[in-house]
Amino acid sequence: MTPFASVKHRGFVLVTSLVFLLILTVVAIFALKSTGVQYRMSSNTAFLDRARAASDSGRLALSSVMPEHVYEREWTSVSLATGLTIADKDENNAADDLYAVNSETSWAADGLDVDARYRIDGNGDGDYADPQDIDAAMAVYRTAIETNTGSGQAMLAGYMGLGKAVSAGGAMIFYDIQSRGYGQGNAQARTSADFRAVVQ
Prior knowledge:
The chain is α+β, with helices and mostly antiparallel strands. It has one helix at about 10-70; strands at about 85, 115-120, 135-145, 170-180, 190-200. The chain has one domain (about 10-200).
């Protein structure tokens, strides 16, 4: 006499375990695909952050020299930041004057001319496509000219003492500086800032 009687299972346990294994495999495949998508999304976010940083860097580099350019009314005596170049769109072998009239006919963001480039090769390999590099194209668009409060538009005009005329710091020129930064994976980011220069 045997303690256990033999019972025919007819493969039910085997089929159940195979179905369970198939379900676990499908869940694992979806988990791996989801991980891959999340990895690509995080990479794209990092690339976009680098492009945004490049855009901000270019805009700040150009903003730092614009007051001197507006004061001098030319570029020859203005010391540019490393990596900053001003465009020569009219091909007269001189950097374009950005304080004067606009070269564009429209203020549409995609229709603005590139007036300056800011490029830093951070790792020295000759390109601007690495995480250490900065690449940005800037456009400058003059928007308005206004007088300061209390200043007159005539020479030496004004009130409250000696007065302040437009030519003596009594006027402001407003610019829209738009910058497009480039990053890895064809990432691009655009930033924009209003810039005010006091006419002196």
